[in-house]
Amino acid sequence: MQQSVALVASTEVMVSRRRRQSVSCVVPVFNEQSSIERFLAALAASVSATTPDFELVVVNDGSNDESAARILGLLQSLPIHYIEFSRNFGKEAAIQSGLDAARGDGVIIIDADFQHPLEIVPQMIKRWREGYDAVIGVRRDRRGDSVWRRLFSRCFYALVDHNGHYRIRHDSGDFRLLDRRAVDVLRRIPERSRFMKGLYAWVGFRSIDIEYDVAPRIAGKSRFRIIDLIDLSITAITSFSVRPVRMLSIAGAMLAVVALAFALYVMLEKLVYGQPIAGFTTLAAALFFFGGIQLIGLGILGEYIARIFEEVKQRPLYVTANEIDQGLGSPREGLQTLRAAKTGA
Ligand code: UDP
Ligand code: MG
Asked: Has this prediction a pTM greater than 0.90?
């Protein structure tokens, strides 16, 4: 008993000793010209209410609209660390580069389209300061999603989420606050194909949920089409699960048993009744069946080999074309820590 009290006390000491002051916000941006200025201003207002020590790591993921100009126009007034990719690399890469660049003690990942409510941000920071290493934004319900999307997501998680060690959250996305140590672990993961939801779960640490309702997109439209969803799912499944290959082996074994039983039956027919079964139909059916199974098997194996191929190539996850750093720790440190907390200090 005494020991456990001592343990609790020492964890508290451990938590309080760690710095939980400055905050980085990682914002992936792809063609958000109509709302990006408003969004960044609102985000800055929301975070600066909690801490003057913050930066906005804005990653322009190869936008081909006016997003870049709009962001650059805010450099004078907001502590922005601007990163521009050489082309579109996808949201996961944008987030990764944001995590690489962020220098805050805590890092918030948030979409630029107002779908992640800004009111939650101060609550996230509060929870983090209480000692949680990950504060996870959890969608209150998925009623906004189509039936197809929900069905798809259910099948998907049935395949991915089955190991006993950690759970991949169904109802959470990238919207979250991660403590420095979780960020550092994420950065050390060398995988090329990054299924972030899975990686967040893999990292672990003490986490807490904060529920929120997804707002409708304020402008523009979502870039995720069903085909992207399928693509992401295959990446996720093949990087987080060997279940498909295992199912294949089990199916193979079961089919072998069935084939053996059938062969025995045919032999008995011949031995007992002296008449072989008229075999063509059975033969043709069996041929197609096994041919199909084998092709599926090859396809699944191919997916894993493709994954290995991606990993061994060791290409960088993203290519930065331009970078302007006036974030935390830069010469213009968080725009002089947001002009010394709006000249209050
Ligand atoms: N995004 C990005 N690269 C992409 C697609 C999207 O950086 O290739 C950004 C986008 O600007 C937004 C966030 O990722 O800030 C979420 O994108 P979107 O709203 O299209 O996705 P959804 O909300 O439908 O998941
Ligand atoms: Mg969105």
From this structure: no
